[in-house]
Design a protein that fits this description.
Layout (H helix, E strand, L loop, with lengths): L14 E3 L2 E3 L6 E5 L7 H13 L4 E5 L3 H13 L4 E4 L4 H9 L4 E3 L8 H13 L4 E6 L5 H7 L4 H17 L5 E6 L3 H14 L5 E2 L7 H17 L5 E3 L6 H14 L7 E5 L10 H11 L7 E6 L5 H5 L4 E4 L4 E6 L2 E8 L3 H17 L15
Parallel strand pairs: 3-4, 3-10, 4-5, 5-6, 6-7, 7-8, 9-10, 11-12, 12-13
Antiparallel strand pairs: 1-2, 13-14, 14-15
Helix pairs in contact: 1-2, 2-3, 3-4, 5-6, 6-7, 7-8, 8-9, 10-12
Length: 376
């Protein structure tokens, strides 16, 4: 089995979103976006803190009005995670949220008016050490590009992205990341592959408007998996019509499956069959809910019989192999004399997993953590 990811990541320059590095040799960051009314400060702060609790590295907040900008000022005071402000068209909002401490501006420079307005936003970002995210979407391409290509194509998304990149290049501003999102997996993947060959700035991955929790997770896993496996991507957001907390969970699960990030328990469980010596499905579901707060990277295998159980347990940090009445227990790949009563598996497993997590956290490999840097 692979202990390290065989993926060789694309070389990109690094930017700072608040105190979190994006790109370069930094771990791939996972982010989400609030879906509350930004003017409802209490609700937005609560959602941001819920996202922080499950591991969000960065959170994006929509700021469509000046009232929302004023609310953002209060929100920023109450949270610790870096905040990206999502702004469209009105350059004055960008200037205001920069004043209020935005950690990144999601704004397309070509969409905010004349040269003076563009320059004022870029200079403000430069003066405040705030990066910009260029965000191209297959559903909102510029009119002339739509007319040229007649429909969204990888080349159309690339041309749109490079139009905004060229503006920032002309103004000698290189602290930016770029996304070229589409709801179609193949369109998004090909667009990112083209863009990755054109620039060395960090790439923000996403399949936009992916769908509900199940279908959106599948679509995002396929699309982002194809890109990540080729080393493309420095930060990602899973766009789901669901609780934003689920976006963070799915994002980390994708990265864990590719061994690009390690956070929380990696449960290895069989789908169960008539050979099972205990109810695998109910055991895994109950256990997963109990241990979702554990952030220590750990492989835990739960297999219902002795056919595949020992093999999986021997390469796991903690393993359970089903047997009659009492099941076999493995620690660090070694079978223990202790056996677990099949009638009380969830409690016993939770206790051992938490104990193992405490011991492992003391020697957690630093490369699996985001290196939080302090601003001067």
């Amino acid at each position: 089995m692979f202990k390290e990811s065989p993926i060789i990541r694309r070389v990109s320059r690094q930017i700072m979103v608040g105190n979190v590095p994006v790109g370069g040799d930094a771990p791939i960051t996972v982010q989400s976006m609030t879906n509350t009314l930004t003017t409802d400060v209490a609700a937005t702060v609560a959602q941001i803190k819920a996202l922080e609790a499950v591991g969000a590295d960065i959170v994006r907040v929509s700021v469509p009005t000046m009232d929302a900008a004023e609310a953002f000022r209060e929100i920023k005071k109450q949270v610790d995670v870096p905040l990206v402000t999502d702004i469209h068209f009105d350059y004055r909002i960008a200037l205001k949220v920069a004043e209020y401490g935005a950690d990144c501006l999601r704004i397309n420079p070509g969409n905010i008016g004349n040269e003076n307005r563009i320059r004022s936003v870029v200079e403000c970002a430069r003066d405040n050490n705030i990066p910009i995210r260029i965000g191209v979407n297959g559903g909102s391409l510029e009119k002339d590009i739509q007319e040229k290509y007649t429909e969204p194509t990888p080349e159309a998304l690339l041309e749109s992205a490079m139009r905004h990149v060229d503006i920032l290049d002309r103004l000698n501003f290189n602290e930016f990341k770029v996304s070229v999102k589409a709801s179609d997996v193949f369109l998004a993947v090909e667009s990112y592959k083209l863009l990755a060959k054109q620039i060395d700035n960090p790439l923000h991955l996403g399949i936009t408007e992916a769908g509900g929790l199940r279908s959106g997770s599948v679509k995002s896993s396929v699309g982002l998996g194809l890109l990540l496996a080729q080393g493309i991507g420095d930060t990602l957001r899973i766009s789901l019509a669901a609780d934003p907390v689920e976006e963070i969970k799915v994002g980390f699960d994708i990265l864990k499956s590719l061994k690009l990030r390690s956070r929380g328990i990696n449960l290895i469980a069989c789908p169960s069959c008539s050979r099972q010596e205990f109810d695998v499905v109910s055991t895994v579901n109950a256990l997963e809910q109990r241990i979702e707060d554990i952030m220590t990277p750990m492989d835990v295998s739960i297999i219902g019989c002795i056919v595949n159980g020992p093999g999986e347990a021997m390469v796991s940090d903690l393993g359970l192999t089903g047997s009659s009445k009492k099941s076999g227990y493995y620690l660090d790949g070694i079978r223990q004399k202790e056996r677990f009563d099949n009638n009380d598996l969830v409690d016993q497993l939770e206790q051992r997993i938490r104990a193992k997590a405490r011991s492992m956290s003391e020697r957690l490999d630093e490369k699996n953590r985001i290196d939080i840097q302090t601003k001067d």
